[in-house]
Amino acid sequence: MALPLSYNWRNLFVRKLSTSLTFSVVSIIVAVLSILLSFAAGINDSLRSTGNPANIIVLRTGATAESTSLIKPDEANRVLQAPGIAQDDKGRTLASQELCAQTTLPRKDGRGIANVCVRGVDEIAFTIHKEVRLIEGRLFNVGQMEVIVGKAAQERYKHLALGEIVPMGRSGDRAYKVVGVFEADGSAVESEIWGPRTSIMDSFRRTFLSSVIVQVKDAGLAREAIDYLQGPAVRLKAKSETEYYEDLTSKTREIVVLTSVLITLMGIGAVFAVANTMYAAVDSRRREIAMLRTIGFVRRSIITAFVLESLLICMSACVCGLIIAALVSSMISKQDFLSDTTWTVLAYDLKMTPWTIGTALALAAAVGVIGGLAPAVRASRTKVIEALRKA
Amino acid sequence: MSSADIEIKKLKKVYYKDKMEIPVLAGLDLSISAGEFVALMGPSGSGKSTLLHLIGGLDTATAGSVRVGESLLETMSEAQLTSWRSRHVGFIFQMYHLVPVLTAAQNVELPLLLFKMKSSERKERVKTALTIVGLGDRMDHRPNQLSGGQEQRVAIARAIVTDPDVILADEPTGDLDAKTSEEILNLLNLLNEEFGKTILMVTHDPKAAAHAKKTVHLEKGQLEREEFSNRQPMAAAR
Ligand SMILES: Nc1ncnc2c1ncn2[C@@H]1O[C@H](COP(=O)(O)OP(=O)(O)OP(=O)(O)O)[C@@H](O)[C@H]1O
Ligand SMILES: [Mg+2]
């Protein structure tokens, strides 16, 4: 039988300074890791690849974002000539001409104002963007000064309650009425305001469109259509919607990669901190170890005891770090994330997923074992007779 | 209540330091019968602790033989010696070597953790051992809440809780005042007389040695002379 856990636990409190320093280092690392991973999970969630591979997003060549993309009406008409474009049962071509304008709205939390995307769309847009569903109110009427608002946008900005009047337009002097609320599988679109294209173009005095989204009959035909759109006949930039969303989520991947690099470096630091604390513990307890060996504890028991002690510091620090992360997450939840694609803000939550917690626990355990092993082996090799001699 | 005899033949121990030979024990012989209480005296550096460590299986001899009861130590591996120590030997040191973060009872319980034993039986044994050394009412005290003499009593309780065959004590009263030393030595006499334990005790103090039935002197790697004390058993003295 091994030494009781209380033996290890109480020993942690003997070397308070050293233990608490290591405890803090590990807690901070776990907290940073969890927050960054929650951040990534949150973004991933709102930029989830809900894209339909049969939908093709067309932008101006060279435009990296809808906001910098200008498509002339005659260019938009040429887009419709692309091969393989589908039609709905009423015989309408499945192509949605869209304008993405920006308006500023005050935040509900009082932290200033934010740029919000106002998307002008035709009725056909709802056939192409199947994920967009009304959950309250009704659809706007074409030709009216009416808008529907995304669920996330409504939660975060003022003036977007059902029935409220929201001032918009180039000079902010056009009064739109909120007539409906929509959701879109939690995607980025939920942070937008949608209205009738003609009214929006008029209010923002725009003659150009931002993008055209076309749907081909079958995802397999997308490649051919994209080649046509990017070729000499149209000369616009075309991407399938899945590709488009994937590019957006690459941001998440960057965060995850950055997190991994950062955490690896911090983890190495933590391993040294743990090793340092444990070496000090071993050195100050040489006689105690010698006594344990004398009364019959084998080397393995000594190794186990010290690795356990190291794990005990790291795992309790992990719990502390997770609590810090949870507090921070709840404080900055519903964080704004300036999308570099639309230059408008997307709403997302920091999500503490089980995966995040699992990763944090694994990291702490790894730091505990790696940092504790060498000191534990040193402890087990204590020269019993020398250690037992008078000081 | 078990006890064993000790038989040492031509025991040699040589330390090597920077390729220099340091002969400590030069082929000594010693027999201690079961239930005997022997004091080991000698100048500092004469090898008393070394001899004790060899008998306790903490160190291995350069040559010669050590038999404790049925066990021939020179034939055993380090792992075997470790397990043998836990069953057959109780050690008592000058520095007590108690674990400061554990209570008296938990310190005494440590050697029992190596055995398959119900927790209730362990507790029972711990209580018995602490009662024998007169600390039945100090079970939950930490070492820093105890006096030196009490700490040594806890160490003695830890040494006897497994009911070992022999007790090896290295200057058990070296750090204690005369009165406390006397109490500790009386306790060793009790273990020897009432429980029949074989005891080998290293000491520098002739008064301490007088508690033993026999004193052997170690000098220049050999046992020089043996003296028998005229001490009356405690029971008879009462
Ligand atoms: N590991 C070692 N390497 C070299 N020499 C050693 C080693 N251990 C002990 N010695 C030497 O062996 C001799 C005997 O040491 P030991 O500790 O047995 O003496 P002792 O009789 O117990 O002395 P004291 O009364 O001071 O406790 C000493 O000269 C010591 O320096
Ligand atoms: Mg000595």
Outline the structure in words.
The complex is a heterodimer of chains A (391) and B (238). Chain A has 391 residues and is an alpha+beta fold. Chain A folds into two domains: 5-47 and 250-390, no CATH class; 52-241, no CATH class. In chain A, 49% of the residues lie in helices and 18% in strands. Chain A is built from twelve helices and twelve strands. Chain A has helices at 5-12, 16-46, 73-79, 125-128, 151-156, 197-203, 222-230, 241-284, 286-294, 299-331, 354-380, 384-388, and strands at 55-59, 95-106, 113-121, 133-137, 146-150, 165-168, 174-183, 193-196, 211-215, 237-240, 335-338, 345-348. In chain A, strand 6 and strand 7 form a beta hairpin. In chain A, helix 8 (241-284) packs across helix 10 (299-331) and helix 10 (299-331) packs antiparallel against helix 11 (354-380). Chain A is elongated. Chain A starts with a helix and ends with a helix. By secondary structure, chain B is α/β, with parallel strands linked by helices. Chain B has a single domain (16-237), classed as Rossmann fold. Chain B has eight helices and ten strands. Chain B has helices spanning 48-55, 78-88, 104-109, 119-132, 148-160, 178-194, 206-209, 234-237; strands at residues 6-17, 20-32, 37-41, 63-68, 71-72, 89-93, 166-170, 198-202, 214-219, 222-228. In chain B, the strands form two sheets. Chain B has a six-stranded mixed sheet with strand order 6-7-8-3-9-10. In chain B, strand 9 (214-219) and strand 10 (222-228) form a beta hairpin. The radius of gyration of chain B is 18 Å and the shape is globular. Chain B starts with 5 loop residues before the first strand and ends with a helix. The structure holds adenosine-5'-triphosphate and magnesium ion.
